[in-house]
TrEMBL record:
It comes from the Eukaryota. Residues 5-125 form the SEA domain. It comes from Nesospiza acunhae. PROSITE patterns: SEA. This is MUC16 protein. The gene is Muc16_1. Pfam families: SEA. InterPro entries: MUC16, SEA_dom, SEA_dom_sf.
Length: 125
């Protein structure tokens, strides 16, 4: 049998109640590290209970970005998630995963204490 390979996919979304500031630009800042820790935990909980659940390894928030035109009251979140792709498994069902994430975030409006821009979720395989 061939061993599973680790595959990555990206998840991007915008938080509307996390004001962007320069601390979120700096991976060494306490605010960046704390916010990344919370984000990783929330994403891990969300995706462990999804169609990729058994194969899911985890997400790592990679970047927080300023949303152009948002008066710095919103923050774009970029994360890279990893799962085991079994040789026999179908490709990542991005559409199915998107719909499950949408359902589990109340129509892409809430992730834990954060409010989401309902038009901002992007899942890329």
């Amino acid at each position: 049998t061939t061993a599973a390979t680790l595959e990555r996919f990206t998840v991007n979304f915008t938080i509307t109640n996390l004001p962007y500031n320069s601390d979120l630009e700096n991976p060494d800042s306490a605010k960046f590290r704390a916010t990344r820790r919370v984000m990783n935990t929330l994403l891990d909980r969300l995706l462990k209970d999804s169609i990729i659940g058994p194969a899911f390894h985890g997400c790592e928030t990679t970047d927080f970005r300023y949303v152009l035109g948002s008066n710095r009251d919103q923050t774009q979140v970029d994360a890279v998630c990893t799962y085991s792709k079994e040789p026999w498994a179908a490709p990542l069902d991005r559409v199915g995963l998107y719909h499950q994430v949408s359902n589990k975030t109340r129509g892409i409006t809430q992730l834990g204490p954060y409010s989401l821009d309902k038009d901002s979720l992007y899942v890329n395989g």
